[in-house]
């Protein structure tokens, strides 16, 4: 099977403390995976490995044909163009409009045709179910859910093959969180692989998918079928 992520014998050590060890898993192209685990269990560290924000102490990290554990600093932008990263706190540029936030990433990643950029902004807003007029708003004029939709639009600028989402609904109320989960589902159904760290176990009931559980430095790999059989995940 075609794998978008391959992790082999990965170990992460911070200041002498082993955070992750003997980590092995693959993500197939098109798969949706949850990353679960208590606070401090290593979820963010595991995700950071995937976009070269953290290098493993040992082991192999391959993402979309990039050998990330050996990636030269100058090649990191190429990896990051093929993945989209989404955080809990949105991380939008607060002094720029929604449109400027999207254009900023486009220009930084080599876009230059103004008409194509304008069209892409409209296409992205439609994709994340935001009205076109949203583009003139400043982030502080938007609700948390709307800001997260803009952050998702920004992550989709270069049609990534993989979305890496670290607790994307952590700051949102349950109803808005469900709507954001539905959006991730739609994005996944259009072919993009997704790995999402979350504390919201209820997501597994509404959208059962494979789950990796971080605990004690290791990973428990629960297949989609096992999740569907409503295994006890705690
Ligand atoms: N840069 C760092 N230097 C030292 N220790 C770190 C660093 N980053 C993370 N850690 C430690 O590594 C462990 C795992 O942290 P990580 O943020 O990956 O966990 P997490 O599962 O994402 O937690 P949360 O659910 O709270 O986001 C924690 O004990 C944390 O204190």
Automatic annotation (TrEMBL):
Record InterPro entries: AAA+_ATPase (IPR003593), ABC_transporter-like_ATP-bd (IPR003439), ABC_transporter-like_CS (IPR017871), ABC_transpr_LolD-like (IPR015854), MacB-like_ATP-bd (IPR017911), P-loop_NTPase (IPR027417)
Pfam families reported for this sequence: ABC_tran (PF00005)
Residue ranges annotated for the ABC transporter domain, each copy included: 5-234
Keyword Hydrolase on entry: no
Superkingdom assignment: Bacteria
Coiled-coil residue windows: none
GO molecular function: ATP binding; ATP hydrolysis activity; transmembrane transporter activity
The keyword Lyase belongs to this UniProt entry's keyword annotation: no
GO cellular component terms listed in the entry, alphabetical order: plasma membrane
Keywords: ATP-binding, Nucleotide-binding, Transport
Family recorded in the similarity comment: Belongs to the ABC transporter superfamily.
PANTHER family: CELL DIVISION ATP-BINDING PROTEIN FTSE, IMPORT ATP-BINDING PROTEIN
Role noted for this protein: Part of the ABC transporter FtsEX involved in cellular division. Important for assembly or stability of the septal ring.
Identification of the protein by name: Cell division ATP-binding protein FtsE
Source taxonomy: Bacteria, Pseudomonadati, Bacteroidota, Cytophagia, Cytophagales
């Amino acid at each position: 099977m075609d794998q978008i992520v391959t992790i082999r014998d990965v170990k992460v050590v911070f200041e002498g403390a082993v955070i992750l060890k003997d980590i092995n898993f693959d993500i197939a192209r098109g798969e949706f995976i949850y990353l679960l685990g208590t606070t401090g269990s290593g979820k963010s560290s595991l995700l950071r490995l995937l976009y070269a924000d953290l290098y493993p102490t040992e082991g192999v990290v391959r993402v979309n044909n990039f050998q990330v554990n050996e990636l030269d600093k100058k090649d990191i932008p190429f990896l990051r163009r093929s993945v989209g990263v989404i955080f809990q706190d949105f991380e939008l540029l607060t002094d720029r409009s929604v449109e400027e936030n999207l254009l900023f990433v486009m220009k930084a990643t080599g876009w230059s045709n103004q008409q194509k950029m304008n069209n892409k902004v409209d296409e992205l807003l439609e994709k994340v179910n935001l009205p076109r007029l949203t583009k003139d708003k400043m982030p502080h004029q938007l609700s948390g859910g709307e800001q997260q939709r803009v952050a998702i639009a920004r992550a989709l600028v270069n049609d990534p093959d993989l979305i890496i989402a670290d607790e994307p609904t952590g700051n949102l109320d349950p109803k808005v969180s469900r709507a954001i989960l539905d959006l991730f589902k739609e994005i996944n159904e259009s072919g993009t692989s997704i790995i999402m760290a979350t504390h919201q176990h209820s997501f597994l009931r509404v959208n059962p998918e494979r789950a990796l559980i971080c605990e004690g430095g290791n990973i428990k790999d629960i297949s989609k079928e096992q999740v569907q059989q409503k295994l006890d995940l705690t």
